[in-house]
Design brief:
- The strands form 3 sheets. Strands 1-2-3-4-5-6 form a 6-stranded mixed beta sheet, covered by helices on one side. A 5-stranded mixed beta sheet has the order 7-8-9-10-13, with no helix packed on it. Strands 11-12 form a two-stranded antiparallel ribbon.
- A hairpin with a 4-residue loop joins strand 1 and strand 2.
- The protein has a single domain, classed as Metallo-beta-lactamase, Chain A, CATH 3.60.15.
- The chain is globular, with a radius of gyration of 17 Å.
- It is about 25% helix and about 20% strand.
- It comes from Streptomyces katrae.
Length: about 260
Amino acid sequence: MSRTTRIIPIPVLGRNGINAYLLLGRRPVVVDAGTPGSGRKIHDAIAAHGVDPADVSLIVLTHGHIDHFGSAAELSRLTGAPVAGHVADLGPYRSGRVREPYLPTGPMGRLMARNGKLHARAEPVEPEVLLRGETDLSETDLSDYGIEARVMPTPGHTAGSVSVLTGQGDLVAGDLIANSFMGLIPGRPASPPFHDDPVGNLASLKRMLDLDPTRLHVGHGSPLEPARVRRWAAREERRLARRRAAGRLRTRGPEPDPQGLL
């Protein structure tokens, strides 16, 4: 009999300006590791929920941006858990630097791109569990790590972006989508400030919505309702089509294949 996976947000900045997540099943799994210097905060939050941090079986990184992998190495040392990351984002993980320049999705991104903290260097981390592929066919089952869930490749925000879909339909979505203004307006779907490939990201989002998730737990903001996200996605598809027709849609080319791993 499968066991329900409980989703617990761990705010790293503000109430939920930046979120990591604790997933509880037979064993705990952590999704994302916040900004540099927040490993101890995440560790202590795990313990505050009655979980021994040493029991964490895996740390899954949704993508190679500094607010999601910034404390991965520290958190791995504190818990003893291995790190899982997609091979297409190995460059940022191994160097501690995100791939630049950031490609803003709107005014918020253009403003944030001037923030020096986004361009800081995190402690490099070497994922021990390598995730591969770009489609559902290359999903990774997490049952061996103690939760009924799958890691789903969702490229677009970065080439190596992934989401975690639990057996009961909760989608821990990283930056596949966000709440407006970096989580400040709860419940209102929006693009995060940056996407390497907005069209590719929207395709990944629609593919996840086709799986009928119950809720979307995001890196920035409170959980989102799928019906509202579907309406937003339809509008976003029209907006991107207009920008593409006008020649104003910037995308990043494919990253070099690190050591032929893809």
